[in-house]
């Protein structure tokens, strides 16, 4: 799905989180919102999902104005920074949640739900953990379950907030490759937020570098690396030169 | 799983010290909590179980029991809903006047119940601010069931909210937001995510609220007017009987009141025991 962010701004009580920003995300792309904390990247992601209302501006999904569309009807798969798995439900019930939440006439039957959950567990390569609770999983497993839960409702786009933030380097590398595979297999328009430029430049097709509520530069990773638009982008990208492990 | 395997050998205090502390706590519990309870039951049964039951079968006693249960049956669900709403607003949203609301919730804890009762009399009584209007419309609040209910609602308001606020604050909004992004309606989210996450805190708050609703004396005594057989609840009846030297009757009713409280505690323990697996699995790591 094609996402158009049109002059969106957001102010909280006294602070401006986003100055009017515009960004076009082509259908099927994988885009990174890259920036330091406080740059407004998470706010922008939440506005795309419908979890936050912009103070001004419009958001268009496939050319249709969706600014007023409630979060439930945006069909955005969202992976939260701390995963936000339902702690009182098993992995199975977590993944099935979005299907069970549907109104009766569009809700799949129990057998169909079980089949889909099983397929998603295979997709994230954790077929054995359906009966466990989130507290019994490792960080990497939780992240993958959160991804499966977001994919279960067959969303129109996939939004991830610092999806690898809380994981160690080894797991992070595996999961990055996993996310890229899932993206390439499903063709889902994917937007993820990160403060790690290796992650952004290594994983995304396009990167939007953000600072202080503004988008400083949008481009392919090679553009950002080789032709930084201004001093901030150059400084931010150079400040984290990969040191092998990343 | 690692919860149960946790060991404490790193803790450095001497075994003798630990035993000492444990024994002192046990002794204090027996002296301060168990002994008075035991006395109540012993006094109630001094003239045998028959005498105790006869005393409770008295028409006025029976009316007090009914009234107490009725007040609790109305006040507790009301305060559970109000407390839940207040806790949700405070824990999940930022708004102007939030600090004031938090202080207001604590007001019933800091104000003496007698003062609360007097305040209600001054507000709704025949010479009170709203008294004339209420009388003109033939609405009776003071010295009647609505007054008892209002006093009980005031006194027990903080229990549910106070239990829920820390739990809900700690849990944040992430799980609820996740439910919304997965297409759940607000009500579905509340039923399947919010409520299950707070059910133990809610249950505990409701039980405390209920114990206090049935046991409240000060505020209720002021507003009830102590009309025997009409506006006397169990605690007021106990005081009246005791002042009339009807010891067995007073202690029988006290024992019944204590038994009701113990019953709610037993209920809570039973629920915790039956759902122990789920509790352990969903507890924070």
Strand proportion of chain A: 15-25%
CATH topology of chain B: MetI-like fold
Strand content of chain B: under 5%
Give the number of DSSP strands of chain A.
Answer: 10
For the record, the CATH architecture of the largest domain in chain A stands as 3-Layer(aba) Sandwich
Named CATH architecture of chain B:
Orthogonal Bundle
* Annotation field: number of helices of chain B: 14
Mean pLDDT of chain B: 88
Backbone structural class of chain B: mainly alpha
Distance between termini of chain A? 31 Å
CATH class category label of chain B = Mainly Alpha
Describe the fold and architecture.
The complex is a heterodimer of chains A (246) and B (285). Chain A is of the alpha/beta class and 246 residues long. Chain A has 8 helices and 10 strands. Chain A has 2 domains: 167 residues, 3-Layer(aba) Sandwich (Rossmann fold); 69 residues, no CATH class. Chain A is 35% helix and 25% strand. The longest helix of chain A is centred in the last third of the chain and has 18 residues. The two termini of chain A are 31 Å apart. By secondary structure, chain B is an all-alpha fold. Chain B has a single domain, classed as MetI-like (MetI-like fold). In chain B, α6 runs parallel beside α11. Chain B is globular. The termini of chain B are close together. The N terminus of chain B is likely disordered. At the A-B interface, β6 and α4 of A face α9, α10 and α14 of B.
């Amino acid at each position: 799905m094609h996402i158009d962010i049109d002059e969106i701004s957001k102010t909280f009580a006294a602070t401006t989180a986003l100055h009017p920003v515009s960004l076009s995300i082509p259908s099927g792309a994988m885009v990174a919102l890259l920036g330091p904390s406080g740059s407004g990247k998470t706010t922008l992601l939440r506005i795309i999902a419908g979890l936050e209302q912009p103070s001004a501006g419009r958001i268009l999904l496939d050319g249709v104005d969706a600014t007023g569309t409630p979060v439930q009807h945006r069909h955005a798969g969202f992976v939260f920074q701390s995963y936000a798995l339902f702690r009182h439900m098993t992995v199975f019930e977590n993944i099935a949640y979005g299907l069970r939440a549907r109104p009766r006439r569009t809700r799949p039957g129990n057998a169909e739900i079980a089949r889909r959950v099983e397929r998603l567990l295979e997709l994230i390569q954790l077929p054995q953990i359906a009966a466990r609770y989130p507290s019994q999983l490792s960080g990497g497993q939780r992240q993958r379950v959160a991804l499966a839960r977001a994919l279960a409702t067959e969303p129109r786009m996939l939004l991830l907030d610092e999806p690898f933030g809380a994981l160690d380097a080894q797991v992070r590398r595996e999961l990055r490759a996993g996310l890229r595979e899932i993206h390439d297999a499903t063709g889902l328009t994917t937007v993820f937020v990160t403060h790690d430029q290796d992650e952004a430049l290594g994983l995304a097709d396009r990167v939007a570098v953000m600072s202080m509520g503004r988008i400083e530069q949008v481009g392919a990773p090679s553009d950002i690396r080789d032709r930084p638009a201004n001093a901030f982008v150059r400084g931010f990208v150079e400040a984290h030169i990969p040191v092998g492990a990343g | 799983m690692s919860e149960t395997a946790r060991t404490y050998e790193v803790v450095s205090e001497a075994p003798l010290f630990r035993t000492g502390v444990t024994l002192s706590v046990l002794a204090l519990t027996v002296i301060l909590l168990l002994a008075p309870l035991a006395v109540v039951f012993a006094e109630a049964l001094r003239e045998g179980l028959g005498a105790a039951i006869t005393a409770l079968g008295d028409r006025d006693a029976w009316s007090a029991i009914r009234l107490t249960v009725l007040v609790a049956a109305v006040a507790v669900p009301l305060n559970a809903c109000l407390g839940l709403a207040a806790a949700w607003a405070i824990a999940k949203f930022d708004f102007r006047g939030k600090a004031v609301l938090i202080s207001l919730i604590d007001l019933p804890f800091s104000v003496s119940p007698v003062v609360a009762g007097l305040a209600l009399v001054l507000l709704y009584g025949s010479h009170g601010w709203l008294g004339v209007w209420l009388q003109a419309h033939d609405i009776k609040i003071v010295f009647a069931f609505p007054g008892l209910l209002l006093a009980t609602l005031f006194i027990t308001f903080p229990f549910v909210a106070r239990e829920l606020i820390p739990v809900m604050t700690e849990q944040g909004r992430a799980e609820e937001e996740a439910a919304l992004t997965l297409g759940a309606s607000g009500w579905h989210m509340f039923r399947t995510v919010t409520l299950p996450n707070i059910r133990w805190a809610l249950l505990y708050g409701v039980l405390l609220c209920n114990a206090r609703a049935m046991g409240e004396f000060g505020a209720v005594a002021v507003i009830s007017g102590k009309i025997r057989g009409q506006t006397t609840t169990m605690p007021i009846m106990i005081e009246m009987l005791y002042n009339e030297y009807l010891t067995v009757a007073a202690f029988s009713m006290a024992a019944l009141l204590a038994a009701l409280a113990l019953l709610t505690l037993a209920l809570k323990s039973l629920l915790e025991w039956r759902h122990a697996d789920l509790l352990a699995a969903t507890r924070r790591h």
